[in-house]
Design brief:
Blueprint lengths: L1 H20 L30 H4 L23 H18 L10 H8 L32 E4 L5 E5 L12 E3 L2
Antiparallel strand pairs: 1-2, 2-3
């Protein structure tokens, strides 16, 4: 009897979550390339030590329901905060798809699943978010695509290349749940 009650409560919570987060979002503008990819010919590339968020003119607007993503790449944040936000996004995905667990594949495939290419069309990362590059990949503050290592259905480690923009060097930052 108790397990049935818990099952009903879990179903109601999932339905409430899907109602709040799973509403269709109108298509936004095309993904924005990182500042380094949009440099004007003849201008020097941006300083790799300066986070992309600090180089941005104004903070990006996020649609209703995505307020938690406002802090992703925020000027006052840091890469550790960004990685925690992405882990929370993966947790929300995993909660919505308990049988499947975390999305797997390349950065672009994982990002596509988080952006609505899933059986519920659940959008957790809106199109046009400044963390997305033109190839549909989630990028760190310096414009380098994150490395996602799916260790299991419930555990994915996310790695940022850090300020030098080269993966597997001393300045990399990694976050595992």
């Amino acid at each position: 009897m108790l397990w049935r009650l818990l099952l009903v409560i879990a179903g109601l919570l999932i339905a409430l979550y899907l109602w709040r987060w799973g509403r269709p979002v109108p298509p936004g503008p095309a993904p924005v390339a990182p500042p380094s990819a949009t440099a004007t010919p003849g201008t020097p590339p941006p300083d790799p030590a300066t986070p992309a968020a600090d180089r941005a003119a104004a903070p990006a607007e996020v649609p209703e329901g995505f307020e938690g993503l406002r802090d992703l790449h925020a000027p006052k944040g840091d890469v550790t905060t960004d990685l925690r936000i992405l882990q929370a996004v993966l947790e929300a995905f995993r909660t919505s798809f308990p049988a499947e667990g975390n999305p797997t594949g390349s950065n672009a495939e994982i990002t596509a699943a988080l952006a609505g290419a899933n059986r519920l069309r659940l959008v957790l990362i809106p199109r046009g978010h400044p963390a997305l590059n033109a190839d549909g990949e989630l990028c760190d503050r310096w414009g380098t695509p994150y490395f996602f290592h799916s260790e299991s259905r419930r555990r994915t480690t996310i790695r940022s290349a850090g300020p030098d923009r080269r993966m597997w060097t001393e300045d990399d930052v990694e976050h595992a749940p």
